[in-house]
Amino acid sequence: MKILTIDVGAGTQDIMLYDTFEPIENSVKMVLPSPTRIFAERIRKHRNDLFVNGETMGGGPINVSIKNHLDKGYRVVMTENSARTVRDDLNQVKAMGIEVVPDGEKHPEIGKVEFKDIDLDAIGAALSNFDVELEFDYIGVAVQDHGFMEGVGDRNFRFMKIKEKLDVPRGPEEFAYFDDAPEYLTRMNGVFRTLKGYKTVVMDSKFASICGATCDERVESMEKFIVMDVGNGHTLAAAFNGEKMVGVFEHHTSALTPEKLDNLVKKLADGTLTHEEVHEDGGHGAIVNDAIGDFECIVATGPRRKILQKSNFKVYYAAPAGDVMMTGPAGLIKTILSKQA
User: What is the pTM of this model?
Assistant: First the structure.
C-alpha cells in the first residue's frame, strides 16, 4: 500500500510518500514552504483588486497580506469558504473591509487567487522531475483547526473539544477523521472538499506530531514518558502510560520559558495540573485523567524544541524514520495503518 502524507504547518509543509513494501527510511520526502506562506507572498506581489475563492485554509501570514492589501486601497472580494481563512465569523471578516460573496460567484474582471491547503498538482509536478509518480492508496493530511462555535472563543472551543475526546485515556491516533469531519472543523472540511474522491484521513497537526514521536524506535520501548511538540505558535504536551495519553496541556509557545515548562511538566506527571492554571496564564488548558509519576524523559519534537535544552528533565529528540522533520507524516502513517490492522 502507498500512503501520501502531508503535514501542513505555519512555516513548512512536510511531505512523505511511503510504500509499505519498502523500509520507511527509503520513502520519498520533501520539506517545502507552507501554503499560507506561498499565498501570502502571491497576495503581497499583487498590484490590483483581488478576488479570492477556494477553500478555508491556514491563515497567519495570509491575513497580514490581506490587511496590507486593503490598507493600500485595493478591493478584496472573497467567497464564504475562502473568507473563513481570515475569521470563521464572517461578520468579523466583513468588518475588516473585505467583501464576502457566496461560494460559486465569479469575478472575471478581478485578478484571482484560489485558496487550498493541499495542491496535489504542484506536488506531483515536483516529484515528476525525479521520475516519481504521485500514486497512492491513502492520503493523510495534518492541519491545526481550532474549530468554530458562534459565541465561543477559538482558544476555549479548541480545548473544549480536546477535553471531550480525552474523557478517557486514548491514543493520539483517535484525533484523526476518516473521510469526513464534524461541521465545526471548517479547515479540515476544506481539506476533505479539496481531496474529494480520494481515501483521505485528516488529523490535528499537534496530535499527528505527538503520534509520530511515538514511532521513534527508542520511544517504542518506553512505558511512561511525556511527548512535547513545541511549535511556532502552540506547544502541546501529552503524558503517556504505555500507548495511551492520560493527560495533556496546550499553551502558546511565546509565553513559555524553560522554568515554566518544567513546572507544567512536573504537575502534568504527578497529576496536579489544572485546566484553570494553564487557561488563566493565557494557554488553551489542561486535562489530566491520571498521574504517571516518575517518567523516563521528555520526548521532544517541533521547530521550537530547543527551548528544552535548559530543562531539568532528561530530553530525547524524536526522529522517526531517522528524520525529525517527518514526525507529523510518521504519525499520519501510523494512524492510517492502525485502521487497516
Answer: 0.93
